[in-house]
Amino acid sequence: MTSAGTAVVETAHYKRPRAPVADGGARARPLDIVELELGSRLIPYPEAWRLQRSIHARVADGSRPDTLLLLEHAPIFTAGTRTRPTDRPVDGSPVIDVDRGGRITWHGPGQLVGYPIVRLPHPLDVVAHVRRMESLLLAVCDSFGVRAGRREGRSGVWTHDAAGRDAKIAAVGVRVARGVTMHGFALNCDCDLTWADRIVPCGIPDAGVTSLTRVLGSAVTARDAAAALTRRLGGQWPVSGPATA
Fold first, then answer.
1. 189 noted as active-site residue
2. Which tens digit of pLDDT belongs to each residue from 34-48?
């Protein structure tokens, strides 16, 4: 794992190794995990988006290994391709329209954002990639003692709020171009959840949002979650095999 600003050193001559076999029969590839000043600087969304596109081009042409960016964003709403006008904030809050799937969500301090930029095996199975991200996030939640799960027909990772209502603790949204993924996941760690009052989070009006800190009643930072996630991955990204936690 490396920790760097957005001036990430590119690999000039990268030869993709044969994919090793990971636990459980899933195949995995070496993964370059890059923390973008995590815990010390909030990364503006346009800056991270430019970096994603740059790394994506190099992963796609084979000159860089699969890469996972870990960061916290400066506060911003982002709207995926399925966002409806009624999902958007009505208070004038800025929104960036992006090319991922899904609807509107928020990024900001106290939320761990991960952008896996990885080549998918053929035939492409985007749903399986989403399920593997969810499995990873479920394992991270479990490592902190938070029981979470999936919900039929809804992406992301879910638990319950104090009233027993479904509450999303992590969101996922992806785009695939040239067989390589972009965008990824956002895990609520110790963020201010009042942002959800200004939008319809992920376009789901009958559910709430929560965080690791709110569920546990004690602080879990984005750096804490990043450490747990990095340990779970073990320097490899699963690209095939079981897609459930």
1. no
2. 999 999 999 999 999
